Predict the structure.
Amino acid sequence: MEMTYWNRQAETMERAALEQLQIQRMRSIIAQALKTPFYQKRLSRAGITSPDQFRSLADMQRLPFTTKDDLRQNYPVGLLAVDMDEVVRIHSSSGTTGIPTVIYLTQEDLNAWTDLLARSITATGCTRKDVFQNMMSYGLFTGGLGLHYGAERVGMTVIPIGGGNTQRQVQVMKDFKTTVLHITPSYLLHIHSRLDEFGVKPGDLHLKKAFLGAEPYSENTRQKLQELFGIDAYNSYGLSEMNGPGVAFECVYKQDMHLWEDAYILEIIDPATGQVLPDGQLGEVVLTNLVRMAMPLMRYRTRDLAFVHPEPCPCGRTHRRLSRIQGRTDDMLIINGVNVFPSQIEEVIMSIPEVGTNYMIHLTRAGALDKLTVKVEIYSKMFTGDLNALEALKNKIRDRLRASITINPHIELHEPGALPAFEGKAKRVVDQREKL
Amino acid sequence: MAKQLTIFLENRPGRIKSISDVLLENSLNIWAFTIQDRGEFGLMKMIVDKPEKAQLILADRGFACVLKEVLAVVAEQDQPGNLDKLTTALLERGVNIKDAYGFVSLKDRQGICFMEFENPEQVNLEEAIAAYGFKVVSGQQLYEL
């Protein structure tokens, strides 16, 4: 197989040189981090007051971890290391308790990120001849804009269509002879289930590849999608705290994802003890971004569980490969590609006086898409006996939840005391979705 | 006006019996009832002989229930055109009916109807209805019929 690279030198660098580059970049990240009150305090507590104290990669373990909670507590500008004038882009993700996390990028940071995406896209064999239909949502979410700029940098023809409106998506695929999709696996399954209705066969389309992301899925689902559409489907990994997509991406060999180690330091730790685990062992993914100066983030605990393949890949890239995400260390749910914490739902329910404090979250699959049902108990003292008031209450809960988690839930009202009561950490989530 | 008990119920087997069990235990008599269904839940509306007592007991058992004033209209003689006369009276006053249920008492063939209105305070409904020959009765009169 002939290999194409976006940046052959960076992608095939000898490990020793790669590690030297990491050390050098880590020093600039520490220098940058020391400009923020948050890291100044954290690092000095760990005995680090100057970048020179970072001598080898073994020194990584001297550095403190950073968590999502740290980001929330320092919202919005506590980790900003440059003047706001230098910032050219802000991205944000919904927070676990209503406080979002925010990411800042300078022009240089944005260039570095876009370059990683161009590299990722090229690793799958795409070229400027491809037509790229970007079906992820745009906006504060990093998935849409990230791949958009990466695909433009490669020189692909980019269709920034965003999510939703299946019939139009298929029409656009036909009209512009789309060759590459960026999409969640469940949405691609859903599209297939509706092709008949539009009088379209997969063979009428010109699809060659799909970048799948934003939600977990199995190798079986990949195989199924590849067969249904006659395409190659590539797995990708990213999270908004690390800029978004482009942290790790599969090459044409599709044997898990090359994590771009000139831009990120990858560690796998035991989530209980924080001890670094050897390659091959399953643990929590911990990442340090080496190419973002606006907002340094070191040893960030992603709460994603995965392992590392240390063996070289036939593609010639020296960057180690990360497995599919095997699970989470927390209770985060992924619903139609959107990250949702049960605590976000709880917070909305607690803010509505007409319902009790007990609730249940049910997840089912309707066709290829996830369905979220939130069951709440009505609160006796607020009951008026009016049917319209109950309908209005359901609408109010649905609207507030949609505003918070961006997903349209189905609301069910129940009698007081009808839902199971829990003491302590409740098992309020019932996930009846078959694994994709 | 009569007092109507309105109870929130989930739409699944056994929920109505959970109400009738409580009423039986307390020897409460049901005069009339109707059920409105809204998917996973519904409202049960009842006229019982001791509404305040019934409400206290049901609330004590954890049910979401309220007492509401409804208009109880009696036509002395069941005959064709009664409902038409009643709706004419309401239309003249521009009143909109929110909910209503009616039946005929088999023993003495009186027509009986319970009604809820939007904004009932704005017009003197009892007078309007009486003008068409109907009786508006209180809860107490009703239970003694």
Summary: The mean pLDDT of chain B is 90. Chain B is about 30% helix and 40% strand. The longest strand of chain B covers residues 65-75.
